[in-house]
Design a protein that fits this description.
The complex is a heterodimer. Chain A is built from five helices and five strands. Chain A is of the alpha/beta class. Chain A has one domain: Rossmann fold, CATH 3.40.50. In chain A, helix 2 runs parallel beside helix 3. Chain A starts with a strand and ends with a helix. Chain B is of the alpha+beta class. Chain B has two domains: about 120 residues, no CATH class; about 160 residues, CheC-like (Chemotaxis protein chec), CATH 3.40.1550. In chain B, the strands form two sheets. In chain B, strands 1, 2, 4, 5, 6, 7, 9 and 10 form an eight-stranded antiparallel beta sheet that branches. A two-stranded antiparallel ribbon of chain B has the order 3-8. In chain B, helix 2 packs across helix 7, helix 3 crosses helix 6 and helix 10 packs across helix 11. The chains are: A alpha/beta, B alpha+beta. At the A-B interface, helix 1, helix 4 and strand 5 of A face helix 1, helix 2, helix 9, helix 10 and helix 11 of B.
Chain lengths: ~120, ~290
C-alpha cells in the first residue's frame, strides 16, 4: 500500500483528503503537515511515496517546498492540490518544478484517486 | 468542478500527457514575444530604452508600455500597434500542442468544444455594481462566481440582493477574509451567521451533522470555502488578463459595531438572502 503525506494548512481539507485516502484501499495516510517546512521534515521521518500538497499556505508555501523536496528526495512524487490550479501560470510553474500533477479545488474523491493511481 | 485553463483540462482528462503539455508551453515561450521583445522587434524602441524602463519599474507601479509612453519613448499609437501585433501573433496552447504533435487539428477542435462545455457553468452573468467602481468587470465576476460556488459547492438555495456601496459592514457571527493582490486588489470577506457556518461545514466536510465539531474546524471550513472561491476568482481574472494572487484566509470576529472600511478602499456589500433566521453577505474592500 502506497504511503501518502497530506500537506495543507486547512484542517478541513486535510481531513477530506485523509478520508479519501483511508477509504481507497490502495493508499494509507502517514500524517498531515500544515506548511512546507513541516512537509520537508515529515518527508524525511515518514518517507511517503506521494505528497499531496497545497500551494497557498502561511510560512513556507507549497511551491517553495516543492523546489526543496524534488532536490532532497528524487523518489517522492508530489501532486499539488490547490484552488489556484486554474491559474495557468501557477499550474505551469508547478509542473516545471517537478510536480507530477495538479488537482484543483474543489475536488471530487474519484478525481483525486484517479490521479494518485496514475503515479 | 473548478475554473480551469485549457492545458490543465487536457492533462486532467488524459487527453495529453504532462510532458507534451510542458513541450507545448516551451514552444509558446519561444514564439510568444514579451512586450519589450515585441517593442524592440518593431524598431520603436531600443534595448537600452527597455532596460532603462525596466529599472524604473522597480520604483514605479506601472506596466512597461504605459511607462514607455509616459517617458515619451512610445506614442499611444505605437503602444497599441505593439499590443495588436502581440495579440495577432500569439501562439495559443492548443495550437502549440498541434505543432509539437500531441494533438491533431481535429482533436484540438473536439477538445476545445468539450472544454467550453465543461466551463460554461462558470461563464459570468451580469451583476450591477454602483457607478464609478474601477475594474468593475472583475468585481462583477467575483460576485457571480461566489454565487455559483454557493450553489455548486455548498448546495445552498439563496437569492442575491442588490449590491451597494457601504460605509460600515454589519457585524455577524463570524467572517472569513482573504486578500486578493496583484493588478487589482481587494479584501474578500464572507460574513456568515452561526447557522450558515454549520451549513458550510457540512458541505465542506461532507458530513450530515457537525454539532460535535470543534470551533476551529467549523471556522476552518468557512475559510477553506473562501479560499476555493478566491482561487477560482484568480483563475477567471487571469483569463481576463488580470494577474491576481491570493493570500491565506483568516477568520474575523467583528465587534457588535461592525467592521470599519480601511482608508483608500471602497466597500461593496452583496447581500445573500438565505432565510429569515440566517444572514450571509459577500463584502469587497476594493483598493482604489
Amino acid at each position: 500500500m502506497k504511503k501518502v503525506l497530506v500537506v495543507d494548512d486547512s484542517l478541513s481539507v486535510a481531513r477530506q483528503l485523509e478520508k479519501i485516502i483511508a477509504d481507497s484501499g490502495d493508499f494509507t495516510s502517514v500524517g498531515h503537515a500544515k506548511n512546507g517546512a513541516e512537509a520537508i521534515k515529515m518527508n524525511h521521518t515518514e518517507n511517503p511515496d506521494i505528497i499531496c500538497m497545497d500551494m497557498n499556505m502561511p510560512g513556507m508555501d507549497g511551491l517553495t517546498a516543492l523546489r526543496s523536496l524534488v532536490v532532497l528526495d528524487k523518489d517522492v512524487k508530489v501532486v499539488m492540490v490547490t484552488s489556484l490550479g486554474g491559474v495557468g501560470d501557477k499550474f505551469t510553474e508547478a509542473l516545471k518544478l517537478g510536480a507530477k500533477n495538479v488537482i484543483s479545488k474543489p475536488f471530487e474523491a474519484e478525481n483525486v484517486l484517479q490521479i494518485l493511481r496514475e503515479l | 468542478m473548478a475554473v480551469k485553463f485549457f492545458g490543465q483540462f487536457l492533462v486532467e482528462n488524459n487527453l495529453v500527457t504532462r510532458e507534451a503539455l510542458l513541450k507545448a508551453i516551451d514552444l509558446q515561450e519561444q514564439k510568444n514575444l514579451k512586450f519589450g521583445e515585441m517593442a524592440i522587434s518593431t524598431g520603436y524602441v531600443t534595448k537600452e530604452e527597455i532596460e532603462r524602463a525596466h529599472n524604473l519599474q522597480l520604483s514605479r507601479d506601472m506596466k512597461l508600455g504605459d511607462l514607455l509612453v509616459e517617458l515619451g519613448i512610445l506614442t499611444l499609437n505605437q503602444l497599441n500597434d505593439i499590443i495588436t501585433r502581440q495579440q495577432n501573433t500569439h501562439l495559443y496552447i492548443g495550437e502549440a500542442l498541434v505543432q509539437v504533435g500531441a494533438l491533431s487539428s481535429e482533436q484540438l477542435q473536439a477538445h476545445l468544444d468539450a472544454f467550453k462545455k465543461d466551463q460554461a457553468r462558470f461563464v459570468s452573468d451580469r451583476i450591477e455594481l454602483p457607478a464609478g467602481i474601477a475594474d468593475g468587470l472583475v468585481w462583477e465576476m467575483t460576485a457571480d462566481l461566489t454565487y455559483k460556488m454557493i450553489t455548486r459547492v455548498l448546495g445552498l438555495p439563496f437569492r442575491a440582493g442588490k449590491c451597494q456601496a457601504v460605509t460600515t459592514v454589519d457585524s455577524n457571527f463570524m467572517m472569513a477574509a482573504l486578500d486578493l493582490v496583484g493588478d487589482v486588489e481587494a479584501r474578500f470577506i464572507l460574513s456568515v451567521s452561526e447557522g450558515i457556518q454549520k451549513e458550510i461545514a457540512k458541505a465542506i466536510l461532507r458530513e450530515k451533522s457537525v454539532d460535535t465539531e470543534p470551533v476551529e474546524v467549523l471556522e476552518d471550513t468557512v475559510m477553506e470555502f473562501v479560499n476555493v472561491v478566491c482561487g477560482n476568482v484568480a483563475a477567471k481574472a487571469s483569463q481576463m488578463g488580470k494577474v491576481m494572487n491570493i493570500n491565506p484566509p483568516v477568520a474575523l470576529h467583528p465587534p457588535a459595531t461592525g467592521l470599519q472600511i480601511p482608508s483608500g478602499c471602497i466597500a461593496l456589500c452583496f447581500p445573500i438572502h438565505v432565510g429569515e433566521n440566517d444572514k450571509m453577505e459577500l463584502v469587497l474592500f476594493i483598493r482604489q
